[in-house]
Design a protein that fits this description.
Layout lengths: L1 E6 L5 E3 L6 E5 L8 E3 L9 E5 L5 E5 L5 E3 L2 E2 L3 E4 L4 E4 L3 E8 L27 E2 L2 E9 L3 E8 L5 E7 L5 H17 L8 E8 L2 E7 L3 E3 H6 L4 H20 L2 E2 L8 E4 L4 E3 L6 E2 L19 H5 L6 H17 L9 H10 L14 H10 L11 H13 L15
Parallel strand pairs: 3-4
Antiparallel strand pairs: 1-2, 1-11, 3-5, 5-6, 6-9, 7-8, 7-10, 10-11, 12-13, 13-14, 14-15, 15-17, 16-17, 18-20, 19-22, 20-21
Helix pairs in contact: 3-5, 3-8, 5-7, 7-8
C-alpha cells in the first residue's frame, strides 16, 4: 500500500514517492505546481508535501492563507497520514488516501474530461467546500442538489451545485440567490442559506437547510388532498408576502420550488431569478421564469414583473393543486408562449367538476391576464384561502409551525 493525494474538488489523485516533493499551489504562467488548485484563497506556492521512508507525509506551509491538517493549523511544518484531510486557505481540500500500487504507474490519475454542461466535479464527490456529500437528492437544468453534512458543525444541509459555467452573469445570479435567500431565511417558510462559495474550477455551491420531505409537485403526483394543498399554498403566500415586504419578488413560483416536509409544512426555495425593488439587473440568455407558470407581463419584459407576477404564480400553484396540471400547457415552448399571450386559461372545473366554485374564483382571479385585476397582494390571496378554509369547518387561520416546535 502507498499514499496518494486526492484533490476533493476535481477527483484527481497524485501518487506520493519517497523524498520526491509535491508542490501545491495556484497555477499561473510563472509557477507550475505539481498539484494545481484553482481557488483565490490558495497561494501560488501554498505548501509542499514530502513522503519519508517511514510512510509519513511531511507538510510544509509556505502560504499566506494557512494550511490545516484535519483541522489543525500547520506551523512551519507538520505530519499527515492516511485518512487526514489537508485544507488550503478557507476550504480547498486534499485527502491523504491509501491505494494499492498499480504496475508501471508513472503519471497522475486524472478523471475523464467533462463537457461544459456537466459538473466539473465527479458525479459523486466526497467533499464540496467544507461539506461532506451524503447522497444526490435531485438534479435539474442548472445543477445538482446533494444532501450533505458540514465537517465543522455536523449540520445536515442541502448542497445546490451550479453546473460548470463561467459566464459572469450566471455567477452573479447564483451569488444573488445566496444573498437574498440568506436575508429572508429567518422566516420559517423560506429555506435558509447558510453558506455559499466556489468549490473548485467552475463549481459554485449553496449550502442551505436540508428539508426532509418532497416537492409540492411530487406531493401532487402522489395524490395530495385538496384541502391540505390549499393550506400549503396559503402558507406559501404568507412567505411570498414576507419577501415582498422585504423588497424581493420571487418570479419563479412553481410546485418544484416548494418543499413539503414530512409534517406538512412548506419551505419556499430557489431565489435564483428573484428581483429586488429598484434592481435593473438582466441576465442575457438566462430563462427568466418557468413558462407554464409565468405571468404574461413577465414574458414580455422580466423587469416589469412586480408583486403581481408572484400573485399569478400563486394562482398557478393553486391551479396545480386543484387540477394536477399547470395552468398553461403546450407541446412546445412556442405554443405555451402563444397561450400565455392569449390570456386564455381553462377554468379548473374543466378538469375536475367537483371543485368548489368559491375556490375556483380565487384561483382564476389570481391568474387574470391583467395584473390590476388580480388580488392586491400575496397577503390578500392568503387571506382569501384562509377564509375559504374556515367556511363551515371551524378551522383556525393557517398558522406556521416554527422550527423545532
Amino acid at each position: 500500500m502507498r499514499l496518494h493525494i486526492q484533490d476533493l474538488q476535481t477527483g484527481v489523485c497524485y501518487p506520493c514517492r519517497v523524498d520526491v516533493p509535491l508542490r501545491v499551489g495556484r497555477d499561473d504562467a510563472e509557477f507550475r505546481p505539481d498539484i494545481p488548485c484553482t481557488d483565490p484563497h490558495v497561494s501560488r506556492r501554498h505548501c509542499e508535501l514530502r513522503l519519508d521512508a517511514s510512510g509519513r507525509l511531511q507538510v510544509t506551509d509556505t502560504s499566506s492563507y494557512g494550511t490545516f491538517i484535519s483541522g489543525r493549523r500547520v506551523t512551519a511544518s507538520g505530519w499527515a497520514g492516511a485518512g487526514d484531510r489537508i485544507v488550503l486557505g478557507h476550504e480547498y481540500a486534499l485527502a491523504v488516501v491509501q491505494s494499492a500500487p498499480v504496475a508501471h504507474q508513472t503519471q497522475v490519475l486524472a478523471p475523464k474530461a467533462l463537457p461544459r454542461t456537466e459538473l466539473s466535479v465527479p458525479n459523486t464527490p466526497h467533499l464540496i467546500g467544507k461539506y461532506e456529500v451524503i447522497r444526490e437528492v435531485g438534479r435539474g437544468g442548472m445543477g445538482i442538489v446533494y444532501q450533505g453534512r458540514c465537517t465543522e458543525t455536523g449540520r445536515e444541509v442541502a448542497l445546490k451545485v451550479l453546473r460548470g459555467v463561467t459566464e459572469a452573469e450566471v455567477e452573479a445570479r447564483f451569488e444573488r440567490e445566496a444573498r437574498l435567500a440568506a436575508s429572508l431565511g429567518d422566516y420559517p417558510a423560506i429555506v435558509k442559506v447558510h453558506d455559499w462559495g466556489v468549490a473548485g474550477p467552475n463549481v459554485l455551491f449553496l449550502a442551505m437547510d436540508f428539508v426532509d420531505g418532497k416537492s409540492l409537485s411530487e406531493a401532487i403526483k402522489d395524490g395530495l388532498d385538496v384541502r391540505l394543498g390549499v393550506k400549503l399554498v396559503a402558507r406559501v403566500a404568507r412567505a411570498v408576502h414576507f419577501a415582498h415586504e422585504e423588497g424581493v419578488i420571487h418570479r419563479d413560483l412553481k410546485p418544484d420550488n416548494i418543499l413539503v416536509t414530512n409534517y406538512d409544512q412548506v419551505r419556499l426555495t430557489d431565489f435564483g431569478i428573484a428581483k429586488e425593488s429598484g434592481s435593473e439587473i438582466t441576465m442575457t440568455g438566462t430563462a427568466m421564469g418557468t413558462p407554464n407558470y409565468m405571468a404574461p407581463e413577465q414574458l414580455v419584459d422580466s423587469k416589469r414583473a412586480g408583486p403581481a407576477a408572484d400573485i399569478y404564480g400563486l394562482g398557478g400553484l393553486l391551479y396545480s393543486v386543484l387540477t394536477k396540471r399547470p395552468p398553461i400547457v403546450g407541446k412546445n415552448i412556442s405554443k405555451i408562449i402563444r397561450q400565455i399571450q392569449s390570456g386564455r386559461i381553462d377554468p379548473p372545473r374543466v378538469w375536475c367538476d367537483s371543485i368548489d366554485e368559491g375556490l375556483e374564483e380565487i384561483c382564476i382571479r389570481a391568474l387574470c391576464f391583467d395584473p390590476e385585476r388580480r388580488q392586491e397582494s400575496a397577503d390578500a390571496f392568503a387571506r382569501e384561502l384562509e377564509a375559504w378554509l374556515k367556511q363551515g369547518s371551524g378551522d383556525e387561520v393557517v398558522k406556521l409551525r416554527l422550527p423545532g416546535s
